[in-house]
Amino acid sequence: MIIMSIENEKTINSYEKYAKEYVNQKNADSNDNIIKQKHAMLSNCLKGVPKSGRLFEIGSGSGEDAAYIQSLGYSNLIVSDVADSFINILRKKGFSPIKFNLLKNDFPEKYDFIHCWAVLMHFTKKEAGESIKKIYNSLIDGGKVLFCVKTSKDKAEGWKRLSEKDGEIYFSFWSKDELELFLNQVGFKKIEIWGYGDWIDCLAER
Predict the structure, then answer these.
(1) For position 165, what pLDDT does the model report?
(2) Residue 162, pLDDT score
(3) Residue 194: is it exposed, middle or buried by C-beta count within 10 angstroms (0-12/13-18/19+)?
(4) E strands, the chain, where?
(5) Is 47 helix (H, G, I), strand (E, B) or coil?
(6) How is domain 6-205 classified at the CATH fold level?
(7) What per-residue confidence (pLDDT) applies to 196?
(8) Per-domain residue ranges of the chain
(9) Contact yes or no for 62/93 (Cβ under 8 A)
(10) What is the torsion angle, in degrees rounded to the nearest 10, for the CA atoms of residue 12, residue 13, residue 17 and residue 18?
(11) Parts of the chain with a pLDDT under 50
């Protein structure tokens, strides 16, 4: 078990309190073209993963990606989140989510594919690094993880307000070279890293 930082605890508490506002704002700001591009990327990353494979989504949030993955024929998908507020939203949408804290909980088994979108960016660099190792150990040989982190030219860490009222969430920042070096050291065999703006997306295979 990894010891949670104050930064991570504060971020989770903010999501617990402002999940509905966050989802409403996200829906209001959503762009169909961006969603289509993201789902096309997700579909491409799932190529080679058998429909009968075991999949795990860390931080399912309001469930848009989980619904898309299931629409592709992947029925053996574990949907999860660390925040009870998101767990409740997922249940109302018909999912059967589990509460899962990547820092505290062990994976039930090994997986063909792990989806970890917009999660590791809220961890300190140490937490994110230990979590990536944990994910690696929870993949079958040939299994893949798809995740994203944030990058910044100016900051080593930062805070952002989640809601107009309150609720700060923490961000750590990586460079592409730093992330690729770390993933190689962990033992990943195939690594694809791309990004746009202040986002870095990564598909890594054990």
Answers:
(1) 64
(2) 74
(3) exposed
(4) 55-57, 77-81, 98-99, 111-116, 139-150, 157-161, 168-172, 190-196, 199-205
(5) coil
(6) Rossmann fold (3.40.50)
(7) 86
(8) 6-205
(9) yes
(10) -40
(11) none
